[in-house]
Prior knowledge:
This protein is mainly α. It contains four helices and no strands.
Amino acid sequence: MEEIKIKVDPAIAKAYQTSTIEEQEKVTRILNEIIEYVLDKGKLESFFAAREVLSQEAQEKGLTPEILEEILNEKI
């Protein structure tokens, strides 16, 4: 793998720098996927279509924006 530099908010940088190796590897995998989708327009369109389907399914099953916010704010 190659390294690149990406600008992030200071709080994100600090959180990353103080995270475990496992957490940093997880972030790397997620960012690789996101960057690949953003730079490949076909994949980006597919991503947004899938996101829309998942969003609709979540809403149908009762997941509200408030519940999602609570889940996202939970400490791991």
